[in-house]
Amino acid sequence: MTSVIEPTPAPVARDTGRPTVLTASRRIDAGELQRLLPHAWPFLMLDAVTNLEPGVRGEAIKCVTNAEWAIHGHFPGEPILPGVLLIEAAAQLCGIVTASASEPGASPSIGYLASVKRFRLRSLVQPGDQVRIEAHIERQRSRLAEFRVTARVAGRVCADGALMIRLG
């Protein structure tokens, strides 16, 4: 006889216009991302968060398509995702990691990109690519968190570096 294990239901996010407190490692889809981040189209860069350890680390996916606004003019005939938008996608993941560490019942802080350090764009990211972004906190002091970020396409590193996030 086969037993079926029912998954634990994910907590329902409050629609407050601010990030929601997350208390467990889990997957976050595009609909919930819209509630967690203060970003709206066209600047919501992530498609899903595939793994989250609140206040510690996270992994996310960014799917690059021909339909994206920035692809149309960058560059005609050889479309690539602008590097600054790859950095923005990584910063959004960092913001989710920091917001998820808020105390239960407290209003979560919004993370703002404060600094881009030692960031290297190592290969082109084109339509059809699925970018897997990993971010983990290396240091945190007061309201500043320094993250180590790595982005990969098909297993190869396409970008890496450090981002500083200031909690608002």
Q: Can you describe this structure in just a few lines?
A:
It is built from two helices and six strands; from the N terminus they run H-E-E-H-E-E-E-E. It is an alpha+beta fold and 168 residues long.
What does this structure look like?
The protein has 168 residues and is α+β, with helices and mostly antiparallel strands. Helix content is 14%, strand content 35%. Strands 1-2-4-5-6-3 form a six-stranded antiparallel sheet, covered by helices on one side. It is globular. Residues 1-23 have low confidence and may be disordered.
Beta-strand share of residues: 25-35%
Shape: globular
Distance between the termini: 53 Å
As a whole number of angstroms, the C-alpha radius of gyration is 16 Å
Q: Uncertain regions: pLDDT < 50 for 5+ in a row?
A: 1-23
- Structural class determined from secondary elements: alpha+beta
Overall pLDDT metric: 83
Largest sheet: 6 strands, antiparallel
Order of helices and strands: HEEHEEEE
Please count the beta strands (DSSP E, at least 2 residues each).
6
Could you give the order of strands across the largest sheet? 1-2-4-5-6-3
Helical amount among residues, as a percent range? 10-25%
Number of helices in the DSSP assignment: 2
Which features characterize this protein?
single chain; alpha+beta; 6 strands; globular
Blueprint (SSEs and pairs):
Elements: H1 30-36, E1 48-53, E2 57-63, H2 83-99, E3 111-121, E4 130-141, E5 144-153, E6 156-167
